[in-house]
Amino acid sequence: MSEVDRRDEMIGRIADEFLRDCRAGCIPSIETLVSKHPEFADELRDLLPTLAVMEQVKLADEEEDSDHLPAADESMVDRTLGDYQIVREIGRGGMGIVYEAEQISLGRRVAIKVMPRQSSWGGTQRTRFEREAKAAARLHHTNIVPVFGVGQAEGVHYYVMQLIVGQGLDDVLDQLKSIGRRSADQIGHRSIWEHVGGGEESEQTDQKPSSPSSGAAPARSGSRGGTGSSTGSSIDPYWRNVARIGLQVSDALHYAHTQGVTHRDIKPSNLLLDHRNDVWITDFGLAKADDDDGKLTRSGDILGTIRYMPPEAFGGRSDGRSDVYSLGITLYEMATLVPAFDAVDRRELVKQVTTGRPLPVSRVNRQVPRNLATIIEKAMECRPEDRYASAGKMREDLRRFLNDEPILARRATLGERCGRWARQNRGLAASLAAVASLLLLIALASSGAAIYYFDQEEQQRRLFQQARSASNANEQLLHELEDALDRSRQATVDAENARQTAERESERTSRSLYSASMINAANAMDQHRGFARAQELLDQWRPTGHRPDRRGWEWFYIQAFCNQHDFILDGHDSEVHALALGPQQRLASAGRDAQLLIWDLQSRQVLRQIDSPVGPLNCVSWDGPRNRIAVGGSKGIAVYETTTWKRIYLSPSPLTIYALQWSPDGRWLARIGRAPASAGPVPHYCLLDADTFDVAQELPGVLNRSVQFTFQIDWSEDSRLLAYPAKKQARVWDRDAGQLRFETNKSWGELRAIQFHPTNPNEIIVCGRDGVVRLWDWNRQQIVTTMMAHTHAAAAAAWHPSGRRVATASWDGTVRVWQSESGTLLRTLHGHERHVFNLQWDSIGEHLFSTGMDGAIKCWRPEAAACRRELPAITHPVSYCGFSPDADRVALASGVGALILRDTNDGHVLAEAKHGRCRLKAFDFSPDGRRLAIVGGVGTVYDPGLLRVWDSTFEWPTREIRPDATLRAVDWSPDGKWIAVGGDDGSVSIFDPNLQPCARTIEREPGSIWSLAWRPDARELAIGGIRSGLRVWDFETQQTRRWHQPQDSVIDVAWSRSGKQLAVSTSDNLIRILDAADLSQIAQLPRQFETVYALKWGPGDRRLMTIDARGTLLLWDPVSWQRTLKLTVGSGGVRAADWSEDGEKIIAPRDNKIVIWDASRGYAAESSDPTWDQPFRASVRALKPRKIAPGPVGSRPMAPTL
């Protein structure tokens, strides 16, 4: 047995003997037991008094129980005690009876407390009565009931107090509980007294005297009336009243403690609220003075009301922190309207107080302000050392709360609370640990046994069910009639039909909701700060265990729009106002959470976190050559050395900093800031000496009174010129000459940022509140370029290291990249939920970092492919376009014979071919992507029909055919064996890849062939045309099936990828879905405004794409046939579009350019391809050819127009 176990066993034996003696009526003295066992003195003094209270006995050291007052003497009403005429009895307490009386000599009403003349009262009670009067009389505080005098008449001891008009706090709490929490919250700007008492006199009990309205009012101290907080405080008036009461009581207790008096019986009934809502402390019957001789309160005495007693009081110990605890328990009851400990039984109540903890305030009443709850819980901690060290400390936190200032107390963490509970309940904690271990072992053993018995039970159940099923079957065969069986079958059929109908309706409803959500998300992309709304709608449709995955291409496209960034650095708790790029791939970020974070861009981890000594941060600047970094905040400037990260400077006076920038040579620090009026004249714009940080030069300019956020300033490369915004003017300051070199002569709005051109110091970029970005040649004093696209203020600008591009950040939530010379908008980056404040290029100009009000630092690669991008095509409008099977290339054809092959991602030319005067109509890649079949011509002598097969580098054609008629349609069979072509003369021909005619022929019919489509298994060919309708030709049998439809002009036809359906576009602007087996109509889409020229099924047949002549591209759900997405090319005359085989990209022509909508980033953001897409993509990747080098034409990469 360990030493601790032996010690606990000995203490347990002593406690058992003590309890046996108590129950036998022979109560031993605690000090006697302590003297016998001095090695356990501390433990016995803590334990034995508590056991005595739980046994409801008196300790042997006590004389008498003072908790009960003897029966009243004969009535003293209308009697005279000395100079006092008794008027009426107003209360009884443990130490005497309180009467209202009139002082005859002065004619004033007072309260007089009389000690009864029962013989049963011993010397201890009389001494305590006298001590109460003396303790109260020695205290002169405006929140303590003053004592006017003490005396004895006719053998009656009494003392005289001020008569208070009011109610006891316990009565107020009772009334608040009766009217309910909701009504208490609605007290509004009235005081608690006005709400429950209305200023009327009410009869008090115990130490709660009432006074007439003519009673003298004492002088008010600083703890009354208010705290100096503004009337515009955000704190609810009820909680202000609670805090104000706590402030007055804690102030009075602090005063009493400084005078050497501990009250020891703080509770609601000993606190009086007068008609001014001021609180008075009364009843000092249990008060203890520092000069107490120790005879009245010996070690082991338990005095006070159990519900409000601190745990240490049960061991006979008390000090000022005990009063803090009782006040905390009282405020807890005021805040929650329930007692902290609610046991009725005395033993259970003692156990709760000594070993339990009240429920946290926020769990009982969530409306209690967090700081007020923290103060209350701090005051009522079980251990005295965990509470406020004094009532003055508690008073200070209550004052801070009322003034809307941060409090000094902090909420205990979960670990601290668990540790405190374990220290308070060591035995129970150890028992719980042992029980938990035992339960774990039992659970493991039980699980094994349960699995075994479950298997046995399952086998028995199956055998039983088999036997019962056999018995029921035999009984049914014997007793059921044929008509019952028929009715049962019919009911089953009806139920199944109803179930299927309900499932179909549920499916249709769910798909309709999805379609509406995607339309709204797509619309949100074009709205101001629509990123957050679009992402919210997307997140609603992520697949879960009970909901199927309804996401189509549109979901991943919008997801790509919302995830255009490369990565996010997330470490701040609030908005970030500034970024600074440092050496060695490091980035500094300064936030309004008063944190300076140093990031390693390679690992994307925080290298160092520095708490700001200057409050919330507005700006940061990195001096790389001299290894310094400066931050500015709402309280000044701090400078750190970046090798040791020691602070080398802190501004001595308060100063709000809006911009800081080191000069390139590190000798100067430019500053924009403002000091409070009390600090005297401080320049708003100035240059600081980088060694002494004294003001070296004052710059002209005055800040607006209502400055928002931060500014951006910049030095020229030679550290001679400084560009800075001054209200609505841009200025350039010559440091050497000490004068302005330039200021704009026009004003458009408050300016926010100015940056020098990295290679041309005569040019500056200027942006401000009007959202317009202007490039100024300040030397010639003229605007070079104006860039307009932002819808809100342009807050910052950052030059690309090359100087050819500039990036701007705006409060509209976007980052835009411009071509600096022409002012062309190259790229718009969405991804911030609110204002964007700052941005920074990396040293090589590959990555762009931005940050803003959402606190996120996002990294972009503007050169990377955008989710929507335009590629320059050719000098003439594009007549046809399409992807290669691997989607890495895109081919473009024009009506003047040009055919170009471009890289899908960056748009540079891979190959180019010319066809003279031939007007190209269509083309199609071979399934392996190595060859390209093109058709065209107009059927004249100068431009006959054309069929040509190129290799994918356009270096040489295999062969060409020049028929007389125009060839308008071409389609390569999925197996790569045949090429089908159709012309305006109604003919359809089949060729092999070498353009040798196929032995199988298709009968020519009147009309013009506009569309050809092989079935995915290459067994059938769908043929559509003007005035020729739709027919399906079987390759093996050479039989033709026709679609019987009054409208016989078919514009385009497309097989579903399963080969089970056909989508047909007709000249009446309708799109019909046919069953491929019998060409019967399955569905019809709503009539379009224009003719639909292109149809394409997506992967897995989950979507159907259509595009009309006006360039409106739509995606349709093939189950509900509702539109899931609408995209606009932006021009008319569109007759082609394509969907890549991998399902990630869609392409359509726009005049002489092409538009690519790319959802690949959306798929990548989900970390895996959708399940419906994986098998098809696997097959595409298996066929993916080797990368083909670009041909001699266009070998120089061309930058795409983003």
From TrEMBL:
UniProt keyword annotation of Protein transport present: no
The biased composition feature labelled Low complexity covers: 209-222
Origin: domain of life: Bacteria
Binding annotation for ATP: 113
Q: Where is this region: Disordered?
A: 195-235, 489-511
Q: What is its EC number?
A: 2.7.11.1
Name assigned to this protein:
Serine/threonine-protein kinase PknD
Q: Which organism is it from?
A: Stieleria maiorica
Question: Top-down, what is the taxonomic lineage of the species of origin?
Answer: Bacteria, Pseudomonadati, Planctomycetota, Planctomycetia, Pirellulales
